[in-house]
Design goal:
Mean pLDDT: 89
Helix content: 25-40%
Pfam families: Aldo_ket_red
Organism: Zosterops lateralis melanops
Radius of gyration: 17 Å
Bound molecules: NADP nicotinamide-adenine-dinucleotide phosphate
Family: Belongs to the aldo/keto reductase family.
Largest sheet: 4 strands, parallel
GO molecular function: oxidoreductase activity
Protein name: NADP-dependent oxidoreductase domain-containing protein
Order of helices and strands: HEHEHEHHEH
Shape: globular
Protein backbone atom coordinates (compact mmCIF):
# COMPACT_ATOMS: atom_id res chain seq x y z
CA UNK A 1 0.00 0.00 0.00
CA UNK A 2 2.84 2.40 0.78
CA UNK A 3 4.21 1.89 -2.72
CA UNK A 4 0.81 2.84 -4.15
CA UNK A 5 0.92 6.10 -2.20
CA UNK A 6 4.45 6.80 -3.46
CA UNK A 7 3.33 6.12 -7.03
CA UNK A 8 0.43 8.54 -6.62
CA UNK A 9 -2.11 5.79 -7.26
CA UNK A 10 -3.80 6.21 -3.88
CA UNK A 11 -3.97 9.34 -1.74
CA UNK A 12 -3.99 7.71 1.67
CA UNK A 13 -4.13 4.32 3.35
CA UNK A 14 -7.21 3.19 5.22
CA UNK A 15 -7.70 0.17 7.45
CA UNK A 16 -10.83 -1.51 8.74
CA UNK A 17 -11.70 -3.65 11.74
CA UNK A 18 -8.23 -3.32 13.20
CA UNK A 19 -7.90 -3.26 16.97
CA UNK A 20 -5.54 -1.18 19.08
CA UNK A 21 -2.82 -3.83 19.05
CA UNK A 22 -2.92 -4.28 15.28
CA UNK A 23 -2.73 -0.53 14.71
CA UNK A 24 0.14 -0.20 17.14
CA UNK A 25 2.00 -2.91 15.24
CA UNK A 26 1.68 -0.88 12.02
CA UNK A 27 2.70 2.39 13.67
CA UNK A 28 5.77 0.72 15.19
CA UNK A 29 6.81 -0.91 11.94
CA UNK A 30 10.46 -0.02 11.25
CA UNK A 31 10.74 2.28 8.26
CA UNK A 32 7.03 3.09 8.15
CA UNK A 33 6.54 5.69 5.43
CA UNK A 34 2.80 6.31 5.38
CA UNK A 35 0.74 5.62 8.46
CA UNK A 36 -2.92 4.75 8.03
CA UNK A 37 -5.03 7.87 7.59
CA UNK A 38 -8.34 6.29 8.51
CA UNK A 39 -9.76 3.42 10.53
CA UNK A 40 -13.25 2.14 9.67
CA UNK A 41 -15.01 0.32 12.51
CA UNK A 42 -18.49 -0.57 13.66
CA UNK A 43 -19.51 2.26 15.94
CA UNK A 44 -22.77 3.59 17.35
CA UNK A 45 -24.15 4.38 20.80
CA UNK A 46 -24.42 0.65 21.57
CA UNK A 47 -20.73 0.25 20.69
CA UNK A 48 -19.07 3.59 21.25
CA UNK A 49 -15.50 2.30 20.87
CA UNK A 50 -14.42 5.14 23.16
CA UNK A 51 -10.89 3.87 23.87
CA UNK A 52 -10.14 2.96 20.26
CA UNK A 53 -11.51 6.28 18.95
CA UNK A 54 -9.44 8.24 21.49
CA UNK A 55 -6.35 6.21 20.68
CA UNK A 56 -6.71 6.76 16.93
CA UNK A 57 -7.41 10.45 17.31
CA UNK A 58 -4.33 10.81 19.53
CA UNK A 59 -2.28 9.25 16.71
CA UNK A 60 -3.79 11.43 13.99
CA UNK A 61 -5.84 8.60 12.52
CA UNK A 62 -9.36 9.64 11.57
CA UNK A 63 -12.11 7.20 12.53
CA UNK A 64 -15.08 6.29 10.34
CA UNK A 65 -18.14 4.69 11.93
CA UNK A 66 -19.81 2.01 9.86
CA UNK A 67 -23.30 0.78 10.73
CA UNK A 68 -23.95 4.04 12.57
CA UNK A 69 -27.68 3.29 12.63
CA UNK A 70 -27.13 -0.21 13.99
CA UNK A 71 -27.44 -1.91 10.59
CA UNK A 72 -31.13 -2.78 11.06
CA UNK A 73 -31.31 -4.62 7.72
CA UNK A 74 -28.46 -7.01 8.48
CA UNK A 75 -29.69 -10.48 7.49
CA UNK A 76 -28.70 -12.07 10.81
CA UNK A 77 -30.61 -9.60 13.01
CA UNK A 78 -32.90 -11.39 15.46
CA UNK A 79 -36.34 -10.01 16.31
CA UNK A 80 -35.29 -9.72 19.97
CA UNK A 81 -32.16 -7.67 19.19
CA UNK A 82 -32.42 -4.13 20.54
CA UNK A 83 -32.94 -1.54 17.83
CA UNK A 84 -31.03 1.71 17.95
CA UNK A 85 -33.56 3.44 15.72
CA UNK A 86 -36.32 2.48 18.20
CA UNK A 87 -34.34 3.16 21.36
CA UNK A 88 -36.59 5.16 23.73
CA UNK A 89 -33.76 7.39 25.00
CA UNK A 90 -32.60 8.27 21.50
CA UNK A 91 -36.19 8.87 20.42
CA UNK A 92 -36.61 11.19 23.38
CA UNK A 93 -33.55 13.23 22.37
CA UNK A 94 -34.76 13.35 18.77
CA UNK A 95 -38.19 14.60 19.78
CA UNK A 96 -36.65 17.24 22.03
CA UNK A 97 -34.57 18.63 19.17
CA UNK A 98 -37.17 18.10 16.46
CA UNK A 99 -34.90 15.63 14.63
CA UNK A 100 -35.23 11.99 13.64
CA UNK A 101 -33.56 9.19 15.59
CA UNK A 102 -31.29 8.56 12.61
CA UNK A 103 -30.16 12.18 12.67
CA UNK A 104 -29.36 11.97 16.38
CA UNK A 105 -27.30 8.84 15.79
CA UNK A 106 -25.34 10.53 13.00
CA UNK A 107 -24.85 13.75 14.91
CA UNK A 108 -23.56 11.77 17.90
CA UNK A 109 -20.59 10.69 15.79
CA UNK A 110 -20.00 14.03 14.10
CA UNK A 111 -19.84 15.75 17.49
CA UNK A 112 -17.01 13.44 18.52
CA UNK A 113 -15.16 14.02 15.24
CA UNK A 114 -16.01 10.61 13.86
CA UNK A 115 -17.01 10.29 10.20
CA UNK A 116 -20.29 8.47 9.53
CA UNK A 117 -21.28 6.38 6.52
CA UNK A 118 -24.97 5.53 6.88
CA UNK A 119 -26.32 3.45 4.01
CA UNK A 120 -29.74 4.06 2.49
CA UNK A 121 -31.44 3.23 -0.78
CA UNK A 122 -34.32 5.57 0.08
CA UNK A 123 -34.00 9.06 -1.43
CA UNK A 124 -35.93 10.73 1.42
CA UNK A 125 -33.62 9.14 4.02
CA UNK A 126 -30.47 10.01 2.08
CA UNK A 127 -31.52 13.67 2.21
CA UNK A 128 -32.45 13.35 5.90
CA UNK A 129 -29.09 11.79 6.69
CA UNK A 130 -27.29 14.83 5.30
CA UNK A 131 -29.28 17.25 7.43
CA UNK A 132 -27.21 16.84 10.55
CA UNK A 133 -24.95 19.84 10.43
CA UNK A 134 -25.40 23.15 12.19
CA UNK A 135 -24.12 25.00 15.16
CA UNK A 136 -26.57 24.12 17.88
CA UNK A 137 -25.14 21.75 20.45
CA UNK A 138 -27.68 18.92 20.36
CA UNK A 139 -27.10 16.17 22.85
CA UNK A 140 -25.74 15.19 25.70
CA UNK A 141 -26.58 11.86 24.22
CA UNK A 142 -27.56 9.61 27.08
CA UNK A 143 -25.92 6.33 26.25
CA UNK A 144 -28.38 3.46 26.32
CA UNK A 145 -27.72 0.44 28.50
CA UNK A 146 -26.55 -1.72 25.61
CA UNK A 147 -22.85 -0.93 25.63
CA UNK A 148 -20.53 -3.35 23.90
CA UNK A 149 -23.20 -4.73 21.59
CA UNK A 150 -21.76 -5.69 18.20
CA UNK A 151 -23.72 -6.38 15.03
CA UNK A 152 -20.70 -7.68 13.17
CA UNK A 153 -18.34 -10.42 14.27
CA UNK A 154 -14.75 -9.66 13.30
CA UNK A 155 -12.75 -12.80 12.69
CA UNK A 156 -9.16 -12.82 13.90
CA UNK A 157 -6.62 -12.25 11.16
CA UNK A 158 -2.88 -12.33 10.96
CA UNK A 159 -2.66 -8.58 10.25
N1 LIG B 1 -15.76 -2.08 6.88
C1 LIG B 1 -16.62 -3.02 7.23
O1 LIG B 1 -16.28 -4.13 7.67
C2 LIG B 1 -18.10 -2.73 7.11
C3 LIG B 1 -19.02 -3.61 7.71
C4 LIG B 1 -20.37 -3.30 7.61
C5 LIG B 1 -20.81 -2.17 6.90
N2 LIG B 1 -19.88 -1.37 6.30
C6 LIG B 1 -20.34 -0.20 5.52
O2 LIG B 1 -20.99 0.74 6.35
C7 LIG B 1 -22.06 1.36 5.66
C8 LIG B 1 -23.31 1.38 6.50
O3 LIG B 1 -23.46 0.22 7.27
P1 LIG B 1 -24.78 -0.67 7.33
O4 LIG B 1 -25.50 -0.65 6.03
O5 LIG B 1 -24.37 -1.98 7.91
O6 LIG B 1 -25.66 0.01 8.46
P2 LIG B 1 -26.45 1.38 8.73
O7 LIG B 1 -26.04 2.46 7.81
O8 LIG B 1 -26.35 1.55 10.20
O9 LIG B 1 -27.97 0.92 8.42
C9 LIG B 1 -28.49 0.83 7.14
C10 LIG B 1 -30.00 0.61 7.31
O10 LIG B 1 -30.59 1.79 7.92
C11 LIG B 1 -31.68 2.22 7.12
N3 LIG B 1 -31.67 3.69 7.15
C12 LIG B 1 -30.79 4.54 6.57
N4 LIG B 1 -31.09 5.81 6.83
C13 LIG B 1 -32.20 5.78 7.61
C14 LIG B 1 -33.01 6.78 8.20
N5 LIG B 1 -32.73 8.09 8.05
N6 LIG B 1 -34.09 6.40 8.94
C15 LIG B 1 -34.37 5.09 9.10
N7 LIG B 1 -33.63 4.09 8.58
C16 LIG B 1 -32.56 4.43 7.83
C17 LIG B 1 -31.44 1.67 5.73
O11 LIG B 1 -32.67 1.47 5.09
P3 LIG B 1 -32.90 1.77 3.50
O12 LIG B 1 -31.64 1.46 2.77
O13 LIG B 1 -34.03 0.82 3.18
O14 LIG B 1 -33.31 3.22 3.41
C18 LIG B 1 -30.77 0.34 6.04
O15 LIG B 1 -31.75 -0.64 6.36
C19 LIG B 1 -22.21 0.61 4.34
O16 LIG B 1 -21.70 1.44 3.34
C20 LIG B 1 -21.36 -0.62 4.51
O17 LIG B 1 -20.73 -1.01 3.31
C21 LIG B 1 -18.54 -1.60 6.41
Amino acid sequence: MEELVDAGLVKAIGISNFNHEQIERILNKPGLKHKPANLQIECNPYLTQEKLVNYCQSKGIVVTAYSPLGSPDRPWAKPEDPSLLDDPKIKEIAAKHNKTTAQVLLRFQIQRNVIVIPKSVTPRRIVENFQVRGQEPWLGLLLPAQQGRRSFIILPSSC
